[in-house]
Amino acid sequence: MKETSFDLSTMRQLRGAQEVGTALDGQAIVMKLQMEDGSAEWLSVHHARVGRLISSILFASGVAAEDRQQAAGLGKRVDQGTTLVDIQRVNAASAAGADHIALRVVIGEGANLDFRIPLALVPALQEKISEAAALAGSTGA
After folding, report:
1. How many structural domains does the chain have?
2. Does residue 95 form part of some domain?
């Protein structure tokens, strides 16, 4: 994917969101976006589009991480910030004969991230989780 040139100085920069809620009996998610210049703007997203919006942002974030890595390889200083998301629940499911498992990660009430994980990747995922859990549970002695 080729990077598009933008003049960031002409764009409003997003600082965060607050006053998050719902409208239309839960049909829409609404939030007040806070901009770096101190201004605010309300945004509404239909509940069925939230997953697509989140996945698009996560995809763009991954592409941006690759771009930062390439820039670092060219000697440019780049920050590698990460945001940790607290998970409330996890569920995994599949069907007999399926070539994948479906993994649902609940990050908030009604906010789910669903992943289709090919069976070939499941052992590596299990291993990485086991390694991280063992490290977290170790005393470091």
Report:
1. 1
2. yes
Walk along the chain (141 residues) and give the pLDDT tens digit of each residue.
455 677 777 888 888 777 788 889 888 889 888 888 888 889 899 988 888 888 888 888 777 777 777 777 777 666 656 666 778 889 999 999 999 999 988 887 667 788 899 999 999 999 999 998 998 888 765
Q: How do 111-118 and 14-23 pair as beta strands?
A: unpaired
* 74 domain-assigned: no
- Give CA–CA dist 108/99, Å, rounded: 28
Q: In 3D, which of 19, 15, 16, 14 has the Cα closest to residue 30?
A: 19
Structural domain range at position 100: 86-141
Q: Which residues contact 65 (CB under 8 A, 6 or more apart)?
A: 80
Any domain includes 7? no
CA dihedral sign, ordered 67, 68, 73, 75: positive
Q: Do the domain assignments include residue 23?
A: no
* DSSP notation for 95-120: -TT-SEEEEEEEEETTEEEEEEEEGG
Name the residue with tokens 């589009």. 49
